[in-house]
C-alpha cells in the first residue's frame, strides 16, 4: 500500500496544495513586536497615501499632470502594501503560516501587476518633467488630459501582460516538496527554488521580460532626465535652477530606491541559496517604498502641505 502511494505521488508531482511562509522572523517571542511594527507601518502608509490623494482631489492648484500621476502612484502604493502585509499580520495572529497554492499565485500576480504599473507610472512622470522643463510652450497640448489617461491605461495594460505571463509560467512548474518559503510573501525567486521541474525557461523569461518591461522604462527615465539636466544648467538664475531641480529630486529619489531594490531582488536568481537579505529587500519593496513616497513628495512641497491642512481643518471637502 505504501509503495502504491509513493508511485501515485511520483506520477502526480503536483502534490503540494499549500506552502508554508516562514515570515520575517522564526522566533515566536518576536512575533508580537513584528506585528505591532508592521501594523503601524501599514496604517501610516495607507493614511499617508490616502492623504496625498485627498489633497490632490480637493486642491485646484494640484489639478496638474504631475499630481494626476502622483495620485495614481498613491493608489498603487496602498494596493502594493495591502497585497502582502495584511495577510502576514493575519498569519502572525493566527500562528498559522500556510498559504494555499492558488492564494500564493494570486498574491504573486497582484504584486507584479501593481509593481509593474508603478514602474511605468514613474516613466510617465519623468516624461511629464521632460515636457514641462524642456518644451514648456507645447506642454499643455502634449500632456493633455487625454494623453494622461492613455499613459495610465497603457501602464496598466503592459503591467497586466507582464504579471499574467509570469503567473502562467510559474503555474506550469511542478511542486512536490519541500514547500517551505523563507519569506513573508510569495514571489518568483523563492518559488523557483522549490520547484521539482527545471526553472531555466522561467528564469530566462524573467530576465528577458524584465529587460524589456523594466529596462526600457529606466532607459527612458535616464534619457528624459539627461535632457532635463541639460536644460536646467542653461538657466542663468541660481534660484531658477534650484527650483527646477527640486521638482525632479523627489522623483529621482523614488526611482533610485525602486530600481535599486528591484535589481537586487531579481538579478541574483543564480545564487544557490536565498538569504535573509532577500527579506530585507522584500520589506523595502512592499513596505518602505510605499511608506516613503508620500513623505518624499510632500515634505518639501508647500502646495501639498497647504491642501492637506485645508482638508484636516475641514475647510475643503472631498465631496
From TrEMBL:
InterPro entries: GPCR_Rhodpsn (IPR000276), GPCR_Rhodpsn_7TM (IPR017452), Olfact_rcpt (IPR000725). GO terms for cellular component: plasma membrane. Keywords: Cell membrane, G-protein coupled receptor, Glycoprotein, Membrane, Olfaction, Receptor, Sensory transduction, Transducer, Transmembrane, Transmembrane helix. It is found in: Cell membrane. Belongs to the G-protein coupled receptor 1 family. Putative odorant or sperm cell receptor. This is Olfactory receptor. It comes from Zalophus californianus. The gene is LOC113907983.
Amino acid at each position: 500500500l505504501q509503495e502504491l502511494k509513493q508511485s501515485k505521488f511520483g506520477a502526480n508531482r503536483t502534490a503540494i496544495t499549500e506552502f508554508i511562509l516562514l515570515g520575517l522572523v522564526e522566533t515566536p517571542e518576536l512575533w508580537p513586536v513584528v506585528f505591532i511594527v508592521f501594523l503601524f507601518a501599514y496604517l501610516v502608509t495607507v493614511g499617508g497615501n490616502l492623504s496625498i490623494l485627498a489633497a490632490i482631489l480637493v486642491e485646484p492648484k494640484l489639478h496638474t499632470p504631475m499630481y494626476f500621476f502622483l495620485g495614481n502612484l498613491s493608489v498603487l502604493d496602498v494596493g502594493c502594501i495591502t497585497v502582502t502585509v495584511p495577510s502576514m499580520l493575519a498569519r502572525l495572529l493566527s500562528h498559522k503560516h500556510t498559504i494555499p497554492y492558488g492564494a500564493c499565485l494570486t498574491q504573486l500576480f497582484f504584486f507584479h501587476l501593481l509593481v509593474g504599473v508603478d514602474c511605468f507610472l514613474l516613466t510617465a512622470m519623468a516624461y511629464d518633467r521632460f515636457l514641462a522643463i524642456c518644451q514648456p510652450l507645447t506642454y499643455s497640448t502634449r500632456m493633455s488630459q487625454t494623453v494622461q489617461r492613455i499613459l495610465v491605461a497603457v501602464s496598466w495594460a503592459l503591467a497586466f501582460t507582464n504579471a499574467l505571463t509570469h503567473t502562467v509560467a510559474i503555474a506550469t512548474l511542478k511542486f512536490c516538496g519541500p514547500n517551505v518559503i523563507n519569506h513573508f510573501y510569495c514571489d518568483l525567486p523563492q518559488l523557483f527554488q522549490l520547484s521539482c521541474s527545471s526553472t531555466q525557461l522561467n528564469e530566462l523569461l524573467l530576465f528577458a521580460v524584465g529587460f524589456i518591461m523594466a529596462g526600457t522604462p529606466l532607459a527612458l527615465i535616464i534619457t528624459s532626465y539627461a535632457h532635463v539636466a541639460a536644460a536646467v544648467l542653461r538657466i542663468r538664475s541660481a534660484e531658477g535652477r534650484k527650483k527646477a531641480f527640486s521638482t525632479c529630486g523627489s522623483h529621482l529619489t523614488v526611482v533610485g530606491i525602486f530600481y535599486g531594490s528591484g535589481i537586487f531582488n531579481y538579478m541574483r536568481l543564480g545564487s544557490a541559496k536565498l538569504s535573509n537579505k532577500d527579506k530585507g529587500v522584500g520589506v523595502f519593496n512592499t513596505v518602505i517604498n510605499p511608506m516613503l513616497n508620500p513623505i518624499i513628495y510632500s515634505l518639501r512641497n508647500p502646495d501639498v502641505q497647504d491642501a492637506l491642512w485645508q482638508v484636516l481643518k475641514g475647510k475643503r471637502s472631498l465631496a
